[in-house]
């Protein structure tokens, strides 16, 4: 199905095409480019113009460029623009403008990607749904997602993130959501903000992009909730709270049973019970907010709750796997792969999940890497993890990275499994030390590169994956 013709892309970007072409997709990466994609030559770590020739050989329909790269044939299909990033943004705005989709935008210090995936599953069961891939939530990820959106889309789920002040509002105005959800506000990116209150103000700026008469789905439990609700009033949005303190979508209780989470909530005076196919009280909280967002978009709440029960996290976001060490005698360990991201709030939630994981005769083991971008209090925030109630139920803790040395020092001696400066040293340290019946959590900021540690644990046996969603802080 054609996504963009040369004429449509010219009109959207103000550019000039060197020929007539049509594209079925949009790509910024030749490693994942599919035949028929429009290749966008962004300049990031490397200049995308260097990859145009390869993209065209792979089957790209055309390339969006600001200059003609050397060595191309005279008839190479190109869309020439003054600035590639600006043109991608224009293409994204045009993609958003031409669709009648109901749009929800999601942000938050923790849980925005998993919540986006929940919404994609819930809405996708009730119509044609389009969502951000992986964590494509920044200055190129949001316009790319919008540019990829088919005109016939019924529901769109756009994830919006930030690292510095002033990033969210322009992306929200580009997405023009009918519903905006803020999962939570927590100590993340403190290097760029003076306080958590400053983070709350930035997160609340997603409401600046709401369409007229839009709805804000807001976490009512956090200390900074007043900032969020005040912003909703200021922009004229309908504010709906979710959480244990909320009046609208009130979370009554959460029970974690094995690999599932069951939540009981109250909505408009009626009891609502929903299930999520993974363990974690924090998933119940975000699931409740997602149910509120679905209702605000006009989706069927009962069907949305059924779909939510079929969702589970994907790789690196808390997915649970059973690693069979000896299939003959049935020895296996439980692996909790949460290696994609970390801050104090998400680390606490992950440790709660580990503490609640049944181990029978085994042990609960945490492999924890540095949490990045926490500012001058980073060491103290790492050390404070030792005081979390969940730590009482955890037997051994491996600490990885310079900042995690503070946690290693703060832990009781009997919980210290070792400290390692970098992730490369961890697989050898684990060899022969994980046993059948153990439950193992791996969590860190992405830059700590604990993915290979997860892979090393998988290679100790035969992984039996729990169901994961397909396609996103």
Automatic annotation (TrEMBL):
Q: Which of UniProt's keywords are assigned here?
A: ATP-binding, Cell cycle, Cell division, Cell shape, Cell wall biogenesis/degradation, Cytoplasm, Ligase, Nucleotide-binding, Peptidoglycan synthesis
Subcellular localization: Cytoplasm
Mind telling me which Pfam families this protein's record contains?
Mur_ligase_C, Mur_ligase_M
Q: Which residues form the Mur ligase C-terminal domain?
A: 333-445
SUPFAM superfamilies attached to this UniProt entry: MurD-like peptide ligases, catalytic domain, MurD-like peptide ligases, peptide-binding domain, MurE/MurF N-terminal domain
User: To which pathway does this protein belong?
Assistant: Cell wall biogenesis; peptidoglycan biosynthesis
Q: Name one GO cellular component term.
A: cytoplasm
**Domain Mur ligase central, chain residue ranges per copy:** 106-294
EC number from the UniProt entry: 6.3.2.10
Q: Where does ATP bind?
A: 108-114
Instruction: Region Disordered: list its residue ranges.
Output: 1-24
GO biological process terms held by the UniProt record: cell division; cell wall organization; peptidoglycan biosynthetic process; regulation of cell shape
- Molecular function terms from GO: ATP binding; UDP-N-acetylmuramoyl-tripeptide-D-alanyl-D-alanine ligase activity
Reaction catalysed? D-alanyl-D-alanine + UDP-N-acetyl-alpha-D-muramoyl-L-alanyl-gamma-D-glutamyl-meso-2,6-diaminopimelate + ATP = UDP-N-acetyl-alpha-D-muramoyl-L-alanyl-gamma-D-glutamyl-meso-2,6-diaminopimeloyl-D-alanyl-D-alanine + ADP + phosphate + H(+)
Identify its protein family: Belongs to the MurCDEF family. MurF subfamily.
What biological function has been recorded for the protein in this entry? Involved in cell wall formation. Catalyzes the final step in the synthesis of UDP-N-acetylmuramoyl-pentapeptide, the precursor of murein.
What is the designated name of this protein?
Answer: UDP-N-acetylmuramoyl-tripeptide--D-alanyl-D-alanine ligase
Please report the organism this UniProt entry assigns to the protein: Sedimentitalea arenosa
Organism ancestry: Bacteria, Pseudomonadati, Pseudomonadota, Alphaproteobacteria, Rhodobacterales
